[in-house]
Amino acid sequence: MNSPETIVAIASAPGRGAVGIIRVSGPQVPEIAIAVLGSLPAPRRARLANFLDAHGDAIDQGVALYFPFPQSYTGEHVLELQGHGGTLVLDLLLQRLLELGCRMARPGEFSERAFLNGKIDIAQAEAIADLIGAGTAAAARAAVRSLQGEFSARIDDLKTKITGLCVYVEAAIDFPDEEIDFLSDRTLQQRLSAVFEGFDSLSQAARQGALLREGLTVVIAGRPNAGKSSLLNKLAGEEVAIVTDLPGTTRDVLRRQVHLDGLPLNLVDTAGLRPAADVVEAEGVRRARQEIARADRVLYILDAATAGNAAASGALATPATLDEPELEGLPAGVPITLVFNKIDLSGAAPALDVASVPPRVFISALTGAGIPLLRHHLKVAAGYLDSDCGALSARRRHLDALTRAREHVQCAANTLSSTRAFELFAEDLRLAQHALGEITGEFTSEDLLGEIFGSFCIGK
Ligand SMILES: Nc1nc2c(ncn2[C@@H]2O[C@H](COP(=O)(O)OP(=O)(O)OP(=O)(O)O)[C@@H](O)[C@H]2O)c(=O)[nH]1
Ligand SMILES: [Mg+2]
């Protein structure tokens, strides 16, 4: 499995620093270590050494670590040189290692080799990138859990349960004399529900992790002057956007990330939607619509003081009392929440009404009334759980694979009860296993590997 090429990269962050680390991995490491250090260091023991150039002069002095195959990060021979973190010194050392026959590593190539050598699976490799990129403590905890293999272990557990199910049914079907009614077979039903429970709890942990990683993109849209920018400022806790009483103040798209109890919210303020007065505003409205189409949720802001009596008073408004045409032209499929703003003027009480479609919140961006209700609503609508409920760092591709796998199991169950055709049943379960295998990297395409490791840092 080991690659014939020896790769090298600066593993520490670019720029000046106290320590600079260069990592080398591959079959030539022992001879390279002897050339650069004078002799091969004892395995896994820190050694103070001079890093030598071609003439035997020191380029730098530092700590050398040698990890012989296979007990290393990549599963190959690895040499780590920890010198001083000056850009020039590190470059000279890198040049020397290239002269000795190394080639520059691609981004993520060390981790890719770790994967190819069976040191980590793909879900763990992705968790490494997630840990490095984590924006909150909760996201970092979820990444560490996945990195330690919890996600992969739960996938394996599901696969074992599915295999058990398959074996059980095959054995039962082998005795055609005994007419088995699968619908009333307790053991089968128990096994099936164990599999579905496994899917549900894993999906929840993964969905939570994906939310922590990617956050929720919330676009604030509506008519000019409704108070969109005021709401952005309120949620951000600072004066991000210009607010004036002139309709058409905001023209550019403004973005700000805030955290809602650990959930990253990517807030987007947009130009008020109306037939534009000039080309600049027209462009602003075009961009606003573009953002709306990409949103995870749209907060559609209405001026409660003018949005119709029933609605504005906070009474249960029928859809007819709303200015419905206003919502036309918003893309179907993007979840919307109607936010009735300026209740300090309309006199309505702060309220959250999730029974209506779309849900409604009554707030004042000026006084802050109702803002806690809005925050609560955003968390609930996203399916975000406040407490650290064992979230596992996950990506959309994982969620997608979990959904497909669950559907295959459901299909298998349906097949069994309607046709008793074991071959079809087994085939559906095989497809489910395959979808689960995609998560850990049992079945991966070159493209996927390139996509995953290509987004890593150099030297990782
Ligand atoms: N009384 C009251 N005034 C508000 C409230 N929210 C916003 N305003 C005022 O309404 C006016 C417009 O607010 P903006 O936040 O600029 O509205 P906008 O929707 O961003 O407007 P455009 O950028 O022009 O589309 C300003 O004068 C705000 O002070 C509110 O809750 N109560
Ligand atoms: Mg604005």
Give the SSE map:
Layout lengths: L6 E4 L6 E9 L3 H9 L9 E6 L5 E10 L10 E8 L1 H13 L3 E2 L4 H8 L5 H12 L3 H11 L2 H24 L12 H29 L1 E7 L5 H9 L17 E7 L2 E7 L9 H16 L2 E7 L5 H5 L22 E6 L1 H4 L4 E3 L6 E3 L8 H12 L13 H24 L2 H19 L5 H9 L6
Parallel strand pairs: 1-6, 7-9, 7-10, 10-11, 11-13
Antiparallel strand pairs: 1-2, 2-5, 3-4, 4-5, 8-9, 12-13
Helix pairs in contact: 4-5, 6-7, 6-14, 7-13, 13-14
Bound molecules: guanosine-5'-triphosphate and magnesium ion.
Describe the overall structure:
With 460 residues, this protein is α/β, with parallel strands linked by helices. The protein has three domains: 7-120, Gyrase A, domain 2, CATH 3.30.1360; 127-211 and 395-441, Four Helix Bundle (Hemerythrin (Met), subunit A) (Up-down Bundle), CATH 1.20.120; 215-382, P-loop containing nucleotide triphosphate hydrolases (Rossmann fold, 3-Layer(aba) Sandwich), CATH 3.40.50.300. The chain is built from 15 helices and 13 strands. A seven-stranded mixed β-sheet has the order 8-9-7-10-11-13-12, sandwiched between helices. A six-stranded mixed β-sheet has the order 3-4-5-2-1-6. A hairpin with a 5-residue loop joins β3 and β4 (58-67). α4 (122-133) packs antiparallel against α5 (137-147). The radius of gyration is 29 Å and the shape is flat. It binds guanosine-5'-triphosphate and magnesium ion (MG).
